[in-house]
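Appendix B, record 7
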Amino acid sequence: MESNPQQTFELSLEPDAELAQPDALPFDTALIRQCKITSSITHARYGLFKNKRACLVGLSIQFLPHHSVRFKYVEVQARLLKPKLGSGDTNDNISPSIIAYEPKRWQGKSQPKSVQKSAHFDANTGLPTAIATGVDLGISAGLSKGTEHTEPGRAWILSAALNAMTVEWRLCENAVAQEGSPNPLQVATIVECGPKFSLRLSFQVKLSKSVDPLSWRAAHARLTKPLDFNSEELGATGLGPDVHAIEKMDSDEFQLQDLVICEWDL
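Structure tokens (predicted):
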């Protein structure tokens, strides 16, 4: 990082070729590119975890849809990179690894959704007509039966460490309320590292303007350059507010989950 590093980054989305189904309310690539994602560094402080050097990294990510578009589903991936050593660097820069991360999971309010299903059965075979004949023979060929049940709809967040250097958060909207995915997202990680390491952020999203759950457009974005962290340039104060027990992040005094907010009215 530079001595006064940029702390907020704005990304425009780029459309993917993938299209789930012909969108009931189609929108062009220009509208997709007007949807933004901003990422801000909230914490960057070196400390200790089990007496080993570690860095606390906190990020706040905001999803900014344009007009009537909403973020239906989001994948946020943070991947660590070991920087190349310069001529003056020592060889003690170990490969960084993720020790802990938050949030792990979250669920919103349950909203029941009524789901109706119907089937037509052949009068002779008792099988659904599409299976028995290959075509729908109509109501006169048999009996139609309908069923109805309710399914809960919730917004949710799930996360997983894909490997020692990559963690991913997945966010999904409530399929009933259709108010978009949880926003903003705050994440925090503890990285065991040497004096330098880098972090790359990438995003995969599904955008929608439709009430049809199968209607969406896929898009992506990522930082063109990784975020570089350097203990010498960050110094003792680091970035962001003071954090209690930064020198013993493995103790009960330090609570990583307190650095993220998981409260959305969804």
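Remarks on this record: The first strand starts at residue 8 and ends at 12. The helical segments are 29-33, 129-132, 231-234.
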